[in-house]
Amino acid sequence: MDPLVVLNNVSMAYGKGASAVPAIEDVSLDIEPGEFIAVVGPSGCGKSSLMKLISGLHPVSKGELKVKGETVTRPLKSVGMAFQNSNLLPWRTCVDNVLLPLEIVPPHRQRIGSHRAEYKQKAVDLLNSVGLTGFTDKFPWQLSGGMQQRASICRALIHEPEVLMLDEPFGALDAFTREELWCALRDIHAARGVTVMLVTHDLREAVFLADTVYVMSNRPGRIVKKRRVTIPRPRDLEVTYTAEFQDVVHELRSMIGGKH
Amino acid sequence: MDRDEFMVKVVSPAAFTIGLFVIWELACRVFSIPLTILPAPSVIFAALIEFRAPIISNSWVTLWTTLVGFALATVFGLLMGIAVGWHKAIYAGVYPLLVGFNSIPKVAVVPVLILWFGLGEIPAILTAFLISFFPIVVNVATGLATTEPELEDVLRALGASKLDIMRKVGIPRSLPYFFGSLKVAITLAFVGAVVSETVGANKGIGKLMLDAQAAFQVQIVFAGLLVLAVLGILLYICTALIEKRFTGWAFRGQNR
Asked: Of A143, A145, A157, whose CA–CA distance to A84 is shortest?
């Protein structure tokens, strides 16, 4: 199977000319369709820049970036994004927030006016599937942080993107809620077969969820390690307490700088 | 409304207002303050009743010139604010001009307006407009400029145009700023109209006060001030109610 996303010696910088600040240098990686990859690294290493790059929000300065065999030159419509902050619109109910991408992406944007009910049902079903049954008509501020994040992930999924990009989506949650959402994300990935790119600084999160973990170095970000996680799926939270799991986490930790 | 809320929202403002007038009345009587310096509230209320016909007709002129100027400022301010918030280059180019223009005391512009349009309602309308559009522009532009970059990324990654982002996020997001600025703008528009009338006009509450002052009818001057204060409060309440109606979501947790 051809990889969905291919990066060949890709570099990226913010700004132009002599004052350009390199963010990513010489990164090569492939993402297979349906693969779950995680990118970990110290803060400010260019993890988020890598995400912007692949989604086409920021141009490549050197190297080659292809998605579905085509060179990326502008924002892809086939990605869904979610961030640490849920960024739900406070004037829209939960379900209306989830519908937002459909008001932007063709062909839905032309149809949503006349087929609102049908789309709404789809959004409600999606929200129900992540455990938000009964909260669909609530406003974001009536939901807990974990619920807001679930809704935010639904918003990223509603238009059935090929790649789901998550930038530290659980960073602001407490430990228990975070583990709950790991399982929710695991189930979404298993049920929908969507390709996921997760940017995180939580190594346990990366190892629990991903098929492949990439470790990035300090700025400018390079990939210093690619580690396949062979722990069989479906993975249960219990797996995080096994020696095999701990070994992988340890191995990744040793690749990341900083004083111990 | 329960008892505590009633105390805070109704009894307290009423008590303070009545208290102010009582102290004022007592001060005037106890210190025998001459009528030409500070008339007592009882005298002012008597003047209000005695001269109600000219007060009402002139208040009406001031009220509608204020509202027309305010309406112009709202439309113009909203459009200008969207334009200024749309693009950094427009923001950088227009902002210094706006600040410079806003720094000119509007009372100094009134003679020019009278020169152009003659004595009448137009200078008052234009002064109300000129003085009140600035806060609307600044607030709308700020609301648009402070859209979360991540949210913009979410939408841009879907191929959203600038117009899409404005319609779906920028403009709804800046509405609380817009309605908030209306509360400031309506009071300013009122000030503008009255200032213009006191510089030169043939009607309006400002003109009435100017004439009364020339005739040493100090109680009418104060009656005019009182009418201005009451109208100002009423206009403010109207815009505050409109704000609540349209952007209730921004006041979450206060009343829900």
From this structure: A145
Q: Which of helix, strand or coil describes residue A199?
A: strand
Rounded average pLDDT over A179-189: 91
A161 prior amide bond cis, ω within 30: no
* Residue pairs between chains A and B whose CB atoms are closer than 8 Å: 69
Whether cis (ω within 30° of 0) applies to the bond prior to A3 is no
Is A163 domain-assigned?
Answer: no
DSSP state string for A63-81: EEEEETTEE--S--SSEEE
For chain A, percent helix, then strand, then coil, each to nearest 5? 35, 25, 40
CATH code at A8?
A: 3.40.50.300
Q: Is A118 a member of any domain?
A: no
- Please state the domain extents for chain B: 1-33, 40-251
- Average pLDDT of the residues of chain B: 89
Contact A180, A146 (CB under 8 A): yes
Set of chain B residues whose Cβ sits within 8 Å of the Cβ of A91: 172, 247, 249-250
Interface of B with A (CB under 8 A): 148, 150-151, 153-160, 164, 168-169, 172-173, 247, 249-250, 252-253
Contact B43, B219 (CB under 8 A): yes
- Span B40-251: which CATH code? 1.10.3720.10
Q: Please indicate whether, in this complex, the C-beta atoms of A57 and B250 are within 8 angstroms of each other.
A: no
Q: In angstroms, how far is the first alpha carbon of chain B from the final one?
A: 13
pTM above 0.90? no
Contact between B176 and B247 under an 8 Å Cβ cutoff? The reply is yes
- Integer Cα distance of A59 and A74 in angstroms: 8
A82 within domain boundaries: no
Chain B CB contacts of A74 under 8 Å are 159
Q: Which two tokens stand for residue B110?
A: 């009134």
Give chain A's domain count. 1
Report pLDDT digits (tens) over B89-133. Answer: 888 888 899 889 889 998 889 999 999 998 889 999 999 999 999
Residue spans of chain B under pLDDT 50: 254-256
A249, A203 Cβ separation under 8 angstroms: yes
The sign of the CA dihedral A234, A237, A241, A247 is: positive
The pair of three-digit structure tokens given for residue B146, joined into one six-digit string:
């402070």
**Do the domain assignments include residue A260?**
yes
